[in-house]
Design a protein that fits this description.
Largest sheet: 8 strands, mixed
Strand order of the largest sheet: 5-18-13-6-7-8-19-27
Strand content: 15-25%
Shape: elongated
Distance between the termini: 53 Å
Number of helices: 15
Number of strands: 27
Radius of gyration: 29 Å
């Protein structure tokens, strides 16, 4: 009989079968469901006799019982652990397996974050079978925890499968990308930015290769000027198509995805014992079936789903306002997961882990408990105060006139936010970044940008590709010549070696040209590298494009602070829906 079957014997909750072993200091599975022990050290009546007259050995199959906490008296070990009671030396306990495992925390539409801080938690092996995986090919990363900063796309679908969900509107929906959060984890693992992407935002969806059930690959053609939510489900698109769409939109590589449907909200909120939400006014929405009083409430199951689905109860009754309450719900869920009430409850931990793994569909790069455990150990260390929820800045779609049905990315604020995420700048560390700008090193960088500027027609530059996407050098030269008047620019093809970031090398007597080019490209002072010898004749500066270069016209350097007016809130701050 396996551990899972033993744990369920006599209708005992499996979670209650894990107890502290004082010899090892870890939690282990208690094989006796009642938690009681025989005073004799070995219960001979239950074990019977082994062949050859050796009683007390048969029937145990090498299993070692773990004492229950309630059977230990202060300062005294149980009788069966005494050498005198057994007539022989106490067996040395086996080294404890490192099961610093993980509590799955979740939120709206399958947002799943793993908390791995403090304490000892467990996952049964059968959780592996709960997880559904999708092979997204080269859209994802084979490493569960990539080096440096990485990104996880959390997708909540509007698929109506599951008990009680068929009545929610479009019962035949194949599951579109209804709720989308790009979770960016910093390279130093201290902070994260969770950026919501509006489902009704107009964007271009690239061509997408998808794996078919027979093992073949089918490429779904790209589509221009459609809603973002069509990146999943429509025309047979899988989550890899949504990942590719996000990469094309933001310039950020998406390493993994996690996806769940309506059931995730109901099951996870119930497993954790309910999620606290706050309303500034009472709500009675017949469409979402949300009915709550003003002030604080605890929601779970159907009420939790109603809270994250309603769009007619708050703000301007738009999807953008719904995003705010979804972020509120997720932040509250994270706080609940990190609370002593959850961490101290084996039953809640087990139920939450079971519900989360059943609710998940992930890419094959994290498609096992082992891989998810590796990811958990990283995500669980991020303090809630260093997780910032933000919404991709958008404006009303100008092509619709006054209808205001869809939105498009804000042409200035969106690019600035993307640049900050690409540069791994935390939204929670903006004040620190501003303070650092006063340091001597930053002052030296700023000084490089101070001084006279040359005319565009006098700038002489050779552009090399040192790690940007293919064709970037040629595209930039075309943009410089045709739109910026930098006629003395040329494409030098690939650089001798790749660079970690875009760099402009220039001679001391070319400083005015360097400053002008920095203005045109949005280069930071740190990207300007002056030489020691003056240029001679028609010698050109050398601009080597790194992976931080996205496209001509998009600033290379990340802004020093977050764009004014973007919607953001830290996960540790309770917010009331308005």
């Amino acid at each position: 009989m396996d551990a899972q079957s033993r744990g369920r014997a006599d209708e005992v909750d499996p979670a209650d079968q894990w107890v502290l072993n004082p010899d090892t200091g870890t939690y282990e599975l208690r094989l006796n469901p009642s938690g009681t022990r025989s005073n004799s050290g070995r219960d001979r009546s239950s074990t019977g006799s082994a062949p050859g007259g050796q009683s007390g050995q048969s029937g145990r199959t090498g299993r070692r019982e773990v004492p229950g906490q309630r059977n230990r008296r202060a300062g005294k070990a149980p009788a069966e652990e005494s050498p005198d009671a057994l007539g022989r030396r106490k067996r040395k306990p086996k080294p404890a397996r490192k099961k610093k495992v993980l509590l799955w925390t979740g939120g709206v539409m399958g947002f799943v974050l793993v908390v791995g801080s403090g304490g000892a938690y467990w996952l049964y092996q059968h959780f592996n079978g709960n997880i559904n995986t999708v092979d997204v090919g080269d859209a994802g990363n084979k490493s569960s925890v990539p080096d440096g900063a990485f990104n996880i796309l959390v997708i909540g679908t509007d698929k109506r499968t599951g008990a009680g969900n068929e009545g929610y509107g479009d019962a035949g929906s194949e599951g579109h990308a209804d709720t989308n959060i790009l979770f960016h984890v910093s390279a130093d693992r201290t902070n994260a930015t969770a950026m919501s992407i509006p489902r009704d935002m107009i964007t271009d969806i690239p061509a997408c290769p998808t794996k078919q059930q027979d093992g073949t690959t089918k490429t779904v053609p790209g589509t221009k000027h459609v809603r973002f939510n069509e990146s999943l489900g429509q025309e047979g698109r899988d989550p890899g198509c949504t990942m590719r769409t996000v990469k094309q939109l933001t310039g950020l590589t998406v390493d993994h995805f996690m996806m769940a449907d309506f059931n995730a909200v109901k099951e996870l909120s119930t497993a954790v014992g309910g999620v606290k939400v706050c309303l500034e006014k009472p709500v009675n929405d017949p469409k979402s079936h949300l009915k709550l009083p003003a002030g604080q409430s605890v929601v779970k199951g159907e009420q939790a789903l109603a809270f994250v689905r309603t769009r007619h109860s708050f703000g301007h009754e738009s999807d953008l306002d719904r995003i705010k309450q979804q972020q509120q719900f997720i932040g509250s869920m994270i706080r609940q997961m990190k609370s002593d009430d959850t961490l101290g409850s084996p039953t809640k931990l087990y139920g939450l882990a079971d519900a989360a793994t059943k609710a998940l569909t992930v890419d094959s790069g994290i498609g096992s408990i082992k891989k998810l455990t590796d990811l958990a150990q990283v995500l669980g260390k991020i303090d809630a105060k260093n997780i910032t929820f933000a919404t991709l800045p958008v404006i009303d779609n100008p092509a619709e006139g006054k209808k205001h049905v869809t939105v498009v990315p804000d042409p200035t604020k969106a690019d600035a936010l993307f640049a900050m995420m690409r540069a791994d700048t935390s939204l929670t560390e903006v004040k620190k970044k501003e303070a650092d700008a006063k340091s001597a090193a930053a002052a030296e960088e700023a000084a490089r940008l101070e001084g006279p500027r040359a005319k565009s027609s006098d700038v002489r530059i050779t552009v090399l590709n040192g790690g940007a996407k293919a064709g970037s050098a040629g595209d930039l030269v075309t943009w410089l010549q045709n739109q910026q008047g930098v006629l003395k620019s040329s494409n030098g093809a690939n650089a001798p070696q790749k660079v970690p970031a875009t760099v402009l090398a220039y001679a001391p007597n070319q400083a005015d040209q360097a400053r002008k080019l920095a203005d045109l490209l949005g280069l930071a002072g740190s990207a300007l590298k002056p030489g020691t010898k003056d240029a001679v004749g028609k010698e050109a500066m050398v601009l080597t494009l790194g992976p931080d270069f996205q496209q001509a016209g998009t600033p290379v350097a990340a802004p020093a602070k977050a764009p004014e007016g973007i919607q953001k809130v830290e996960a540790d701050k309770p917010v009331c829906a308005k």
